Amino acid sequence: MKIVVCVKYVPDATADRKFNADNTVDRVGVQGMLSELDEYAVEEALKIRDGDESGDAQVVVLTMGPADARAAILKSLQMGADSGVHIVDDAIHGSDSVGSSLLLAKAVERQGADIVLCGMASTDGSMSVIPAMLAERLGVPQVTFASEVTVDGNTVRVRRDGDAATEVIEASTPLVLSVTDQSNEPRYPSFKGIMAAKKKPVEEITLADLGVAAGDVGLEAAWTKVEAYAERPPRSAGAIVTDEDGTGANQLVEFLAAQKFV
Amino acid sequence: MAKQVVRPVTSLELFAIDGQLDDEERAIRQTVRRFCDDRIRPHIADWFEDAAMPVVELSLELGELGLMGMHLEGYGCAGTSATAYGLACMELEAADSGIRSLVSVQGSLAMFAIHRFGSEEHKQEWLPRLAAGEAIGCFGLTEADFGSDPGGMRTQARLDGTDWVLNGTKMWITNGSVAEMAVVWARTDQGIRGFVVPTATPGFSAPEIKRKLSLRASVTSELVLEDVRLPASALLPTAQGLTGPLSCLSEARFGIVFGALGAARDCLEATISYAGEREIFGKPLSAYQLTQQKIADMTLELGKGMLLALHLGRLKDAGAIRNEQVSLGKLNNVREALAIARECRTILAANGVTLEYPVLRHANNLESVLTYEGTSEVHQLIIGQAVTGESAFR
User: Fold this and answer.
1) Terminus of chain B with fewer CB atoms < 10 Å: N or C?
2) CA neighbours within 13 Å on the CB side: how many for B312?
3) At B258, is the pLDDT very low, low, confident or very high (cuts 50, 70, 90)?
4) pLDDT mean over B318-329
C-alpha cells in the first residue's frame, strides 16, 4: 500500500508575518514550519502503514513550495515517513488552491497512491478545499474531516463529527482522506527518527516533470488574488459581565451561545 | 512622535545562538522542548511540592524519544552528537534539574560505564533496556564521608572463590530506589573496581533519602550492600582504578554545562515576562533602570555561558575535549545559573518564593547541581592545577 501525504510549509504563526510586493506571503524571509494540522495527517499515515499486515506499505510525503519548504518534508521524515517529493519551481509562486491542486494531483498520479492523506486545513490559508479538489482531479472518492479512521484491506471507514450529527462514511481505495486535529496525537520525532531522516530520499521535481505548463499555475493563473491587506487592529478588551441583578449567568450563557461556544 | 515599539528578542536570540546549530540539533532541541511543555511543565510544581514523580512512566517516555544514552553508539542508543546531548539536557533542565538528573545518571553514568567498561554480555543485557527506559540504572560512587575524595571509599569487594562479595554504603545516589541495576564502585585488592549489580540481588537495599529542599522531583537514595554476592562476570573488565568512575563523571558534567543554562534561561524568561506585566509606581517593573541592569547582566552571563557550552560541545564532538575544559564549563555555568536564579527571585519579590513561578525551585535545585559531579571548589582545584602545574588537592 502506498500512502501519499500532502503537507504544507507555512510561516510560523508566532513570528511576525510579512508580505511580498505582489501581496503574497513572504515564505523565504520568515521562519517556516510543517503546518501543525498536517502533523495529524502524517501521524495517521504512519499509523495506517504500521498497522498494514503486508509489511510493504510506505508513506511518501509530498509538498510544493520554495527550497525552504523542504523543512516540512524533513519534519515528516523525522516523524517516520519513508520518502519525500518536493515540487520546486519558480513558476509555482503565487499559485492558488486551483493551481496547487493541479500540481499535487499530477504528482500523486506520477507516484501512484492508494490513499492520499491531507490535514483538515492549512494553518495559513485555512481554506480546506485542497482534499476535495484533489479527489475531483484524481477522479476518486473523498472522505474528509475524519476524526477517526479505520482501514480494513482496501476499505477505509471514517467517523465525521458534525455540528448536528456524527456520520460514519466508508469508501474503497484509491481515495482522498483528510483528518482533523481530533483524529490522533502526532508523535514527537524520536532522536533515531531525526538521525535517520537525513538518509531518506527526497526527490525534487519541476513543472516539466509533471507535464504542467507554467501558464496554468502561479500568480497570473490564480482565480483569486489578494488586492490589499492590513494588519489586524490590536485586540480590544473582551466583554465583561457584571452581575448586578442576578442575571449575570444568563447574560454569560447568551454570550457563549451567540459566539457558538455552546 | 509615536514611541517606536521594538519586538523584544530573547536573551539567547540576542546572542544569535541558533545560527550556530545545525538542523538536526535544532530538531532534537525542539522535540525535547515540546515534550517538556506537554509532559513535564504542567506537573512539575506538584511533583516538586509532593517530592513525588512518576519516574517509571517518565523513564519509558524519555526512552521512547531516545533521550537515554542518546550520545552513545549502538545497543539501541540514538548515537547523536555530544552537542545535541547537551542541548537536550538544557531543555530538560529548563523544566527541572531533577528530570535532567534522571537522564544524566541513566545515560552518562550507568549506561556510559557499561558502554565504556562493560563486557559484551553486560552491554547486550543492559544497554537496550536502559536505552528504552524499560530499566532504570544508578551509579554508586559517593559515600557519606567520601564525596570529593572518592579514592577514600570504604565499600569493599572481596573474592570468595570466583564470586565477589560486596559490603558498604553509598550515599546521595540519584535513581537508587527505582533502579533495576546499579554500577557500584568498590575497593578491592586490585584497587578500585566497578561492578554491575542487579538491585534484586540479596543483601542490596536502597532506602530513599527524604526531607530534601532541593531536587525534590528526583529520587535520591542510599545504597546499602550487605554481603551482596555476585558472580565473577559482574566485574566491569576494563575499568581499573579511579580513572574509570572519574571518566563517567566527566560525561555527566558535560551535560550539566548545558543543563544549568536551561534552568537559568527558564528563570530569566519567567522574570522578563513578569517584569513586563507587573506595574509599580505607574509603569512596568521592566521599565526601571535598576531592573534593566539586572536583566542585562543576566542576559550577558547566560549568553556567555551558552557560547562556552557550545565551544565545549564542538571540542567534544571533535574528540579533542580535556577534563579540565569540562571543569571550566561546569564551574562557570552552574555558578552563574545559580546567581541568575537568585537575582531573578529579587525581581519577582514575594512571588518568587512560590511554586507559581520557577525561580526558587530552580535556585534550590541548582544548590545540588553546584555540589554534585564535582563541587565548584574541586573544579577550581582542577583548573588551578591545569594553569599553575601545582596540585592543591591536599
Assistant:
1) N
2) 28
3) very high
4) 96
CB-based contact B259:B100 (threshold 8 Å): yes
CATH number at residue B34: 1.10.540.10
| pLDDT tens string A148-164 | 999 999 999 999 998 89
CATH top-level class for A2-221?
Answer: alpha beta
CB contact under 8 A, A195 and B78: yes
pLDDT digits (tens, 9 = 90+) for B27-61: 999 999 999 999 999 999 999 999 999 999 999 99
Query: Residue B143 belongs to what domain range?
Result: 137-242
Most B-contacting residue of A191, A192, A202 (CB-CB within 10 A), to test interface: A191
**Distance to chain B for A78, nearest Cα, Å:** 9
Which of B97, B132, B167 is the C-terminal boundary of a domain? B132
d(CA B291, CA B365): 24
Taking the CA of residue A187 and the nearest CA in chain B, the distance in Å comes to 9
Could you give the C-alpha distances from A253 to A244, A257, B85, B129, in angstroms and in order? 16, 6, 51, 53
CB-nearest to A192 from B27, B78, B84 is: B78
- Indicate if ipTM > 0.85: no
Is B61 a residue of the active site? no
How many domains does chain B fold into? 3
Flag whether B394 is in a domain.
no
Q: Which among B207, B242, B277 is the end of a domain? A: B242
Q: Does A188 touch chain B (CB under 8 A)?
A: yes
Handedness of CA B221, B128, B185, B316 (dihedral sign): negative
Whole-number Å distance between alpha carbons of A34 and A74: 9
Residue A143 backbone phi and psi in degrees, to 5:
-125, 110
CB of A189 less than 8 A from some CB of B? yes
Segment among A14-23, A71-80, B188-197, B296-305 with least mean pLDDT: A14-23
CATH code (residue B166): 2.40.110.10
Q: How far apart are CA B56 and CA B75, in angstroms?
A: 21
Among chain A residues, the shortest Cα distance to B6 is held by A16
Please name the residue that has the C-alpha cell 553486560: B122
Say what the pTM is.
0.89
B65 touching chain A per CB within 8 A: yes
Reference B137, options B158, B155, B122, B151; nearest CA is B122
A259 contacts A239 by C-beta, under 8 angstroms? no
**Is B210 part of the contact surface with chain A (CB cutoff 8 Å)?**
no
Q: Helices marked H in chain A — which ranges?
A: 36-51, 70-79, 97-111, 130-138, 191-197, 207-210, 248-258
The Cα-based distances of A109 to A120, A135, A211, B59 in angstroms read 22, 12, 11, 44
CB-CB neighbors (< 8 A) of B79 in chain A:
195
Q: Which residue, A40, A52, A42, A46, is CA-closest to A1? A: A52
Angle (deg, nearest 10), helices B289-317 and B323-348 = 160
Q: Looking at CA atoms only, how far is residue A242 from chain B in angstroms?
A: 25
